[in-house]
Amino acid sequence: MPRRGIWILIGVLFIPFGVVGAVALAAVAISGSVLQTQQASLTPGTVPAAYATLIEAAGAACPQMSAPLLAAQLYQESAFDPKAVSPAGAEGIAQFLPGTWPNWSSPQDGDGKQDIWNPADAIPAAARYDCALAQQVSKIAGDQINNMLAAYNAGPGAVEAAGGVPAIAETQNYVKNIRILEQAFAAPAGTVATSDVAVRAIAFAYDRLGTPYLWGGTGTAADNGEFDCSGLTQAAYGSVGVTIPRVAADQWYAGPHVPRAQLMPGDLVFFAYNVNDPSTIHHVGIYVGGGAMIDAPHTGASIRFDPIDTFGGYIGAVRPYAQVPTWPIGQPTPSVSASATP
User: Which of 4, 39, 70, 335 is the right S-S partner for 66, CB 3.0 to 4.6 Å?
Assistant: First the structure.
């Protein structure tokens, strides 16, 4: 079928959902509007509920810091894993070396212990260290937040010597990732930028309607062209040059979060066992308008249209970045952040 007929057919198929023509109308509305985000607070559901209050409080530690920025940094460092250990021996959710930890730690949870493995101690310590670094590199030209993050990763000496973010690939990717990921954690304060590739991503998924579900499938020849839910969404956006991670729980951070009232065709919609814990996300689909999505639902089914309210545990939606982080995220790597001294 010619691509121009896709939207007409989608409208017809939506009759059971009572939304004839919704996709076509929404697709016309796709444009390049400006992304607006509120950096002061977190989007609910973007961090594990147990850490949200800690991150909000620590995110106010200094003018260069914010809760979304700190959340993005912790996700980059450890993917919120309080037991993470890097090859260099950095430990915990904020990836401090044990020898450096006492310089920044302070008992925060009332137990009198300075525990590198306890997020209640480690999250405020990370913010204190960030703010100390921001002060140390405040006289250096360039973006103060980028310089602060670079100092966390490479050490303040490297930033001072370079006069800004040093020409170290790991550090440059670290800064880039966090500044992009910051958008995924920030509560929207306006209209989230729409995507100019969304219609083509939907067309990719549409062309695979009726394809059997395959757990772990990514559509390769070895998979007989079959997909699971996140394999389909990854391939759909990959077909238009946007790289998103492999699994649904990671795709949750592949763009800014969109309020349900602002859903547009091409947004990724997510479902979790616990809507307060993004690590429990188990399903993702591509929104097509009118309350419906294209998804690969489960073993024994095929890629199809489903109302998003078919699946319990709707946790939210993401509009994939035009500019994407370097994936994978949250796999601890050696970093001077774990070994720098005050």
Answer: 39
Q: Is residue 325 situated within a structural domain?
A: no
CA dist., res. 145 & res. 154, Å (int): 14
Residue for token pair 């103060």: 144
**Which uninterrupted H or E stretch holds 258?**
strand 257-258
Strand partners of residue 294 = 286, 305
C-alpha span between 81 and 211 (Å, rounded): 36
Kindly tell me the sign of the dihedral angle through the C-alpha atoms of 245, 43, 171, 115.
negative
CATH code at position 137: 1.10.530.10
pLDDT digits (tens, 9 = 90+) for 247-276: 999 999 998 899 999 999 999 999 999 998
Q: How far is CA 331 from CA 69, 95, 121, 122, 336, in A?
A: 18, 11, 21, 18, 15
Task: Give the C-alpha separation, 119 to 116, whole Å.
Answer: 8
DSSP lists the bridge partners of residue 213 as 227
Q: Considering its fold, how many domains does the chain have in total? A: 2
In a domain, 219, yes or no: yes
What's the whole-number average pLDDT of the chain? Answer: 83
CA–chain centroid gap for 243, Å, is: 12
Comparison of pLDDT for 8 and 325, the residue scoring more: 325
Alpha-helix runs per DSSP H in the chain: 6-13, 22-28, 49-58, 67-78, 101-104, 119-136, 144-154, 156-162, 169-185, 198-206, 229-238, 248-251
C-alpha span between 329 and 202 (Å, rounded): 26
CA dihedral 289, 292, 293, 295 (to 10 degrees): -170
What distance in Å separates the CA atoms of residue 35 and residue 130, rounded to the nearest whole number? 26
Residue-range definition of the domain harbouring residue 94: 37-188
Same domain, 199 and 311: yes
